[in-house]
């Protein structure tokens, strides 16, 4: 296969953009242009988001309107170096469905490896985490319990994307005060297992209040397509309206 043929067969996207809108040398999402992982990317009418320090990319496939009971559905792509999520649980169920690659989901201490077409539903209150422990990209859909959970993820990714453009260190993790503020605001929709739930309620009511005053909690501007289109290379250069008309 020639280099030109390979370039035509591979979709390269998701790199951080400089001030002139040009991709820089940051992490890139490389997918088989005709494969299921790229097809999943084309499903979304929303912009592609990225956390350069965490080697992950995501986009909303479905976002319920205000007052609607449907769940948000998020597509994610994890590279081999993407860190595992902290162990956590939700007051509602969460479903993972793998499109391409292999996703490891640990549910209540039991590890499950999901391949293409396989899924698992984690029931409310059950501790879980997930990761990519393979040498390739894994693409999957996740039906999340709430938009507040989505907004907390997008805020963390947005802070990391800003850091990648020279506003800090892009390491995939919010600064300590920002992390505390996010954890306080997303509670109880997402509960980490760093401390017993009763202690967390007290912690978020006290320390969390101070963290919100000094750090950055959930910020809905990170859900805006324009934020990501200015900072992250989009597939085939399509803007949000162009994707919706495809």
Name of the level-1 CATH class:
Mainly Beta
Provide the CATH topology: Jelly Rolls
Q: How many structural domains are formed by the residues?
A: 1
The CATH architecture would be Sandwich
Mean pLDDT: 88
Task: Give the low-confidence spans.
Answer: 238-246
Number of DSSP helical runs:
7
Helix share bin: 25-40%
Radius of gyration: 18 Å
- Strand coverage percent: 15-25%
Number of β-strand runs? 13
Provide the CATH superfamily: Jelly Rolls
* Major sheet: 6 strands, antiparallel
Task: Write out the strand line-up for the largest beta sheet, numbering strands in chain order.
Answer: 3-4-5-12-7-10
Structural class: alpha+beta
Q: What global shape is seen?
A: globular
Q: Secondary-structure element sequence?
A: HEEHEEEEEEEEEEHHEHHH
How far apart are the termini?
A: 30 Å
């Amino acid at each position: 296969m020639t280099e030109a043929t390979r370039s035509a067969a591979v979709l390269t996207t998701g790199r951080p953009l400089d001030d002139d809108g040009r991709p820089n040398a940051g992490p890139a999402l490389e997918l088989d242009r005709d494969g299921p992982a790229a097809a999943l990317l084309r499903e979304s009418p929303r912009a592609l988001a990225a956390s350069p320090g965490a080697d992950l990319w995501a986009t909303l496939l479905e976002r319920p309107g205000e007052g609607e009971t449907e769940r948000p559905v998020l597509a994610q792509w994890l590279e081999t170096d993407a860190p595992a999520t902290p162990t956590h649980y939700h007051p509602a169920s969460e479903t993972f469905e793998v499109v391409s690659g292999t996703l490891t989901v640990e549910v209540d201490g039991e590890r499950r490896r999901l391949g293409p077409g396989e899924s698992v539903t984690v029931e409310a209150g059950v501790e879980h985490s997930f990761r990519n422990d393979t040498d390739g990209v894994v693409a999957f859909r996740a039906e999340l319990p709430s938009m507040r959970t989505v907004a907390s993820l997008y805020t963390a990714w947005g802070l990391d994307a800003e850091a990648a453009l020279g506003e800090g260190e892009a390491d995939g993790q919010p600064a300590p005060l920002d992390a505390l503020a996010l954890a306080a605001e997303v509670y109880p929709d997402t509960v980490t297992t760093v401390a017993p739930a009763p202690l967390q309620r007290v912690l978020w009511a006290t320390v969390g209040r101070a963290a919100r005053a000094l750090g950055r909690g959930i910020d809905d501007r990170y859900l805006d397509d324009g934020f990501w289109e200015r900072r992250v290379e989009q597939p085939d250069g399509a803007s949000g309206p162009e994707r919706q008309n495809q």
